[in-house]
Amino acid sequence: MVIGMKLRYQFRAYPSVPQRIELARAFGCARVVWNDALRIRQDAYKKDGSSPSIVGLAKQLITEARKTEERAWLADVSAVVLQSSLRDLQTAYSNFFASKKGTRKGPKMGPPRFKKKTSRQSVRFTKAARFSITGEGRLRLPKIGDVEVRWSRRLPSDPSSVTVIKDSAGRFFVSFVVEAEEKPLPELDVEDTDTGIDLGLSTYAVLRGRKINTPKFFRRQEKKLRRAQRKLSRCEKGSGNRRKAKLAVAKIHARVADQRRDFIEQETTRITRESQAVYVEDLNVKAMGHRKGKRAKSVHDQALGQFTRTLEAKCARYGRTFVKVSRWFPSTQLCSAPGCGALTGPRGLEGLKIRRWTCDCGAVHDRDENAETNLRREGRRIVAEGLPDT
Q1: Among 354, 345, 6, CA closest to 176
Q2: Dihedral, 4, 7, 11, 15 alpha carbons, nearest 10
Q3: What confidence tens digit (pLDDT) does each residue in 121-141 have?
Q4: Could you tell me the pTM of the whole model?
Q5: 142-169: string of b/e by CB count within 10 Å (b at 16+)?
Q6: Among 301, 279, 281, which Cα is nearest to 289's?
Q7: Of 39, 136, 285, 350, which is the most buried if we count CB atoms within 10 A?
Q8: What is the SS3 assignment for 372?
Q9: Residues classed as catalytic
Q10: Measured CA distances, 77 to 15, 73, 125, 297 (Å)
């Protein structure tokens, strides 16, 4: 059965100078409506515990506010952008209340906060805005015009919305939400192609029969980043030179993030094509990143959580089995030799330095390859017993 799923396609955009001015106006108006609505909701809650409806807020903060002298400039942007800002606030409150009740997965969420003008901004246009893609391949946006887009692939269906994003490096992107079909790849023999994936720092990932070396994108740019940050710290606040220096720092971070994202996309695609099933350890990446020193910096540079999420999404779309093995499973300490299974492997932080070890049974193990073998066996057991992913 073919099941529809929502995907996001992002492309680089190159608005003209007048279009950038109009987009800046749209960013500002959306931010003002968000802050006005948040202030009204907070005041209403303090007064009598009530929560104004989104319809009432839209009428007060958009329809009626446009007629006043104080907020007349809201009419210069599409009303859909302002309505989307109100819906985003409603979603933020819903997530906050669900988090407090414990019905929302993931880390605890705080209440919505007032927005400030930052280097990264975005606005969203829904179908109600009647945006379109012209015959010349430009994106037509209301009150902004036809924006040049660098298309790298075709959209699988008509988009339901488009978000225009300006990142901290001053680049513009358009992000489309589209409905796409699952595309199962040809099935492979599970016994021959399934793999455990042992993620780490010295080696990015160890799979069945091969290793992925650590790319160290941030480490390679660290010297250049330090120099740019030093220059930024010496510039006078509010000066033009400081704005240029801040942009230079942002561009280095953007380059690192782009390289990391491209690396993860390529590697997860290869794994999905080569493996019928993948078994990944459910690492507590957030806790690993809280440690002090070089190890925490390396954890953030690896982006292991992003790798796992991307791989899981691709497995779901292309019909591959994806299993998370419990983080408490002793994949490193367990001897993978047939008939042994003794817990004689290296343990604790000191054990991280040990790359090869010998079990009491006489088997000599490479630390990472042994962990991959154990993860693969545990993943097969979970699938065979029909247990939920841990």
Answers
A1: 6
A2: 90
A3: 999 999 999 999 999 999 999
A4: 0.87
A5: bebebbebeeeeeeeeebebbbbbbbbb
A6: 301
A7: 285
A8: helix
A9: 198, 281, 368
A10: 16, 8, 11, 42
CA distances from 110 to 33, 95, 371 (A): 20, 9, 38
The strand pairing partners of 366, in sequence order, are 356
- Euclidean distance between CA atoms 113 and 92, whole angstroms: 10
pLDDT tens profile 15-69: 999 999 999 999 999 999 999 999 999 999 999 888 999 999 999 999 999 999 9
> What is the spatial distance between Cα 217 and Cα 158, in angstroms, rounded to a whole number?
36
The CA distance from 34 to 166, in Å, is: 18
How much of the chain, in percent, has pLDDT values that exceed 90?
68
Which uninterrupted H or E stretch holds 178? strand 172-181
Distance between CA atoms of residues 374 and 331, nearest Å = 5
Written as six digits, the tokens of 355 are 């790359």
Amino acid at 37: A
- Give how far Cα 240 sits from Cα of 1, 93, 245, 380, Å: 58, 38, 9, 59
Give CA 384 to chain center in angstroms.
31
Is pLDDT of 106 > 90? Answer: no
| pLDDT tens digits for range 348-380 | 666 677 888 888 888 888 888 898 999 999 999
| HEC per residue, 318-356 | HCCEEEEECCCCCCCCECCCCCCCCECCCCCCHHHHCCE
178-220 per-position pLDDT tens digit: 998 878 889 999 999 999 999 988 889 999 989 999 999 999 9
pLDDT of residue 184: 86
CB 277 within 8 A of CB 379: yes
CA distances from 260 to 4, 202, 217, 228, 297 (A): 29, 16, 7, 20, 14
Scored b (16 or more CB within 10 A) or e, 251-279 reads: bbbeebbeebeebbeebbeebbebbbbbb
